[in-house]
C-alpha cells in the first residue's frame, strides 16, 4: 500500500525509523558504526596505551547491564549481572598489561553474552539493546583481532 503524499517529510522519516527498529536493522546498523568508533577510540586518546582504552571500554560496556538489572528490579538478576560485569572488569584489567588477545576475548565474550540476553530476555526491557551492543562488540573485536594479526602494538 502506498503512503499518502500529503504526509509531512518528518512523519515519513519517523515511519522509516520505526520500521528499521521494528525489523531489527537499526540497532545492527548503528552497532556497526559504533563498533568502528570503539575500535578507533585509541586514536582520540593517544596519551594512553590502546590496551588501556579498550580495557576501559570493556569495563564500561559490561556495567551497562547492571543498570538494566536495577531497572528490572529482581534481586537475582541484579546479583547475576553484577557478577558478570565484575568478571568482565577483571578480564579487562588483565588486558591492560597482558596479551591484546584478552581484549578481543573480552569484547567477543560480551557479544556472546549480549546474544544470550537477546535470545533469553533474562533482563527485562532490553529489546533493541542486545543486538546493538553485540554488533558493537563483534565489530570492535574483529577490527582489533585484525590489528593484532597485522602486528599493531597495543602497549607504548
**pLDDT averaged over residues:** 86
Strand content: under 5%
- Secondary-structure class: mainly alpha
Shape: globular
Q: Count of DSSP helices? A: 6
**CA-atom Rg in angstroms:** 18 Å
Contiguous runs where pLDDT drops below 50 for at least 5 residues: 1-8
Helix content: over 70%
Q: Please provide the ordered H/E string of secondary-structure elements.
A: HHHHHH
Count of strand segments: 0
- How many domain regions? 1
- C-alpha end-to-end distance: 59 Å
Profile the largest sheet: none
Kindly list the characteristics that best describe this protein.
156 residues
Task: Draw up the topology in text.
Elements: H1 9-22, H2 25-44, H3 50-72, H4 75-97, H5 101-120, H6 129-149
If you had to describe this structure to a student in words, what would you say it looks like?
The protein has one domain (47-156). Helix content is 78%, strand content 0%. It has helices at residues 9-22, 25-44, 50-72, 75-97, 101-120, 129-149. α2 packs across α6 (129-149) and α5 (101-120) runs antiparallel to α6 (129-149). The longest helix has 23 residues, at 50-72. The model is unreliable at 1-8 (pLDDT under 50).
